[in-house]
């Protein structure tokens, strides 16, 4: 029998396959499971266990920002520019979100 904690996690956790590699995307904010208002600005963490990743990546997700608020005149994932695959995966859930890597060099 499967434990209720596995069927309904206490914290938001996603197992991801990005560019053929597996990793875990998670948050320590349990409100993301039940309160849509908490999806304005929130933090996600990503860990893949790959050799090139020396620490868990801390990402800040802003689902209500606009391209003119980013300080850049151009969307970093616009046509002709490369966008990290992890950002594209996150945008399958939160379309149009601005993702800050908080000083970590984007990988994937």
TrEMBL record:
InterPro entries for this protein: MINDY-3/4_CD, MINY3/4
Catalysis performed (reactions): Thiol-dependent hydrolysis of ester, thioester, amide, peptide and isopeptide bonds formed by the C-terminal Gly of ubiquitin (a 76-residue protein attached to proteins as an intracellular targeting signal)
Enzyme Commission designation: 3.4.19.12
GO MF annotations in UniProt: cysteine-type deubiquitinase activity; K48-linked deubiquitinase activity
Residues annotated as domain Deubiquitinating enzyme MINDY-3/4 conserved: 5-103
Cleavable signal peptide: none
Domain of life of the native organism: Eukaryota
Name this protein carries in UniProt: Ubiquitin carboxyl-terminal hydrolase MINDY
Source organism per UniProt: Atrichornis clamosus
């Amino acid at each position: 029998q499967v434990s209720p904690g596995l069927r309904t996690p206490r914290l938001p956790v996603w197992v991801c396959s990005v560019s053929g590699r597996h990793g875990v995307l998670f948050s320590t904010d349990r409100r993301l499971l039940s309160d849509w208002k908490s999806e304005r600005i929130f933090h996600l963490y990503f860990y893949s266990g790959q050799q090139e990743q020396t620490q868990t990546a801390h990402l800040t997700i802003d689902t209500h920002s606009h391209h003119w608020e980013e300080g850049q005149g151009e969307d970093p994932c616009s046509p002709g520019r490369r966008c990290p695959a992890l950002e594209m995966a996150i945008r399958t859930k939160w379309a149009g979100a601005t993702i800050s890597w908080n000083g970590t060099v984007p990988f994937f």
